[in-house]
Amino acid sequence: MKAIKHAAKTPEQGGTSASEKISYGLGGIGYQMTLALTNAFLTLYYTDSALISASFVGTMMLVARFLDGASDIAMGFIIEKTRTRFGKARPWVMIGAVPLAISILLLFHVPSGLAPLPKHVYIFLTYVFMSVVCYTVTALAHSAMLPRISLISNDRNIVTVVLALMQGIATAALVGVFAPALEAFGGESSQNAWTIISVFIAAVSLLLLTLCFVKTKEKLSATEDLVEASGDEAAPVSKTSVRAGLSFLLTSRYFYIIVVLYLTLAVTNGTAGIGVYYMRDVLGDANLMGLFSIITVVPMIVMMPLVPKLFSVFGKRKTLLRALSATIVIKIVMLFFPTSLPIQLICAFLGTLTLVPLWVAAPTMICDLVDYGDFKRGVRTEGLTAGASSFGTKIGTGLGSVILGFGLTIGGYDALAAVQPQSVINAVIFIMIGIPAILCAICLLLVGSWNLEKFKPDVDAYMEARRNRLPCED
Fold it and tell me: For residue 170, which of 269, 297, 275 has the smallest C-alpha distance?
């Protein structure tokens, strides 16, 4: 074992470099772009290219989400038990990268000529492989990395801003160019078009997740287990007990708030596929997806750098309460003018502006709970907390998929019809605008119950002391 010594650390010790922030953001793009592709266009691929009913797609995705719940919890335990020279969560980002890329290729390539039953089985198995296994491994590990690559609250806020900004811009760019690219390669009914695009997404995803693994470092990776201090009186970092960590989480109301918050936020992921139907059937042009994507990028660029300052001045909770209240008002305005392109564009801009603080805050709330558990019980639960929040995300996405699939079916959607009936138009409007308004109201109630900030001074002092006694390798 290498000699270990304790040395005084500056307050910045345990933070992230600019390179690490960017690399962590690239990793976020690596798995997020696969999620954006499936959320926004997989239902369209199944209904218009593979000719599968929307109700089957919604039911399948809901079933997969419950399987996801089990895989998230299992992956959380696996991360808690992982001890490698690369760290606790970071190795799994690389382990999941190749299977994730393969799963995207399988997902968007339903073999032609299959009979109905084999086709449905293929679709179910490939979707489960992608979402339940591959995406869970990479996304959950990436989330669990955050409280380990940065031990400083303010630094995490900046890391999260960089991550959210990079993911937002990449997602908007992907969604914006997808419809024109799909049309250029043959349209939504062409398997060749879907194959070309999925190959590109898979390759870029693999590259970005690899860069994330190579260019980041867990600050606690070398000190997770009990370390002999060679006579130094400073307390060594103790090994995390999974049982103690689980006991803490299950008795903390903040844990349940995070799970339900992530579930609520994720319902919009499941209904994201309604966007292309909304542009095409309500506003009259599917290519408007690109314009709306651009409209959402600008407020992200403007607002995200300001969010850490807003949190420090007003506090995280008050900032979120005000932002969510404004978002609800904007959604109500959109409901009154669903076919007005100018109003929809203005509200899309303003609605993104007011939602940015929540997008930034959500990952840091996981970190806040991890640090609070360290402060309160002496246990760090990165894997378990990330697993539980991911569980909420998966269940929420499944519910959103059901809303999307059955909403279109109940409305009477016909993939072969040139013009959809008014019942479909009404269903699309409600899913696109009404559902998010309801979800924002639920988030408002959840954030109102999040008062963990009252412990922040004590937790920050504790974490600084913890950083100051981290062992350093000669």
Answer: 297
**Taking a C-beta distance cutoff of 8 angstroms, is the pair 130, 100 a contact?**
yes
Alpha helices (runs of H) in 378-454, residue ranges in sequence order: 382-411, 422-429, 435-448
> Which of the 8 DSSP states describes residue 84?
B
Report the DSSP pairing between strands 4-6 and 471-473. Answer: antiparallel
Q: Are 285 and 336 in contact (CB under 8 A)?
A: no
> Among candidates 378, 323, 366, 355, which has minimal Cα distance to 452?
366
**3-state SS class at 66:** helix
391-413: b or e for each residue (b if 16 or more CB lie within 10 Å)?
Answer: bbbbbbbbbbbbbbbbbbbebeb
Task: Give backbone dihedrals phi and psi of 71, rounded to 5 degrees, phi first.
Answer: -70, -35
Residue with tokens 């690899």: 210
To which residue do tokens 């490939």 refer? 126
For 102-122, how does the pLDDT look when each residue is reduced to its tens digit (9 = 90+)?
999 999 888 877 888 998 899
Q: What is the largest CA-CA distance in the chain?
A: 79
Q: Give me the residue label for tokens 């909403």.
A: 407
From 29-43, 61-75, 179-193, 224-238, the region with the lowest mean pLDDT: 224-238
Which of these, 28, 32, 60, lies nearest to 46 by C-alpha position? 60
Does domain 16-217+240-462 bear CATH number 1.10.150.130? Answer: no
Give the model confidence (pLDDT) of 411-453 as tens digits: 888 877 778 888 989 999 999 999 999 999 999 999 999 988 8
- Return the pLDDT at 241: 63
Identity of residue 409: T
Domain residue limits, the chain: 16-217+240-462
Give, rounded to a whole angstrom, the gap between the first and last alpha carbons of the chain.
11
Q: Are 150 and 156 in contact (CB under 8 A)?
A: yes
Contact of 62 with 402, CB cutoff 8 Å: yes
